[in-house]
Amino acid sequence: MMKINKFPDKESLGQAAAALGANLIRKAIASNGLANVIVATGASQFETLAALSKEPDIAWNKVNFFHLDEYVGMKITHPASFRKYLWERFERLLPLPPRSFSYLDGEGDSQAEADRAGRLIEEHPIDVAFVGIGENGHLAFNDPPADFESNLPYLIVNLDEDCRKQQLGEGWFDSLDEVPRQAISMSIRQIMKSMHLIVAVPDARKADAIGRTINGPVTSDTPASIMQEHPSCYFFLDTQSAAKLL
Question: Which fold has domain 2-238?
Answer without folding.
Answer: Rossmann fold (3.40.50)
